[in-house]
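go over this:
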Amino acid sequence: MAIHLRDNESIDSALRRFKRELHQHGVLEAARRKQRYEKPSDKRRRMQAAAIRRARRAARRRGDR
């Protein structure tokens, strides 16, 4: 992943763009997850919790409660 400096762009704004790109692609989250071994049962539990959060968020957007 590369970020090229634009004309008259400060380093701070380029760094902010780079961090935003990393966040959007999930690079940091993946690196944190792979730091340690995660048991399959823990991974399954995490994925189920994320699915529940997504479903609740979608229901809120639709107006269901």
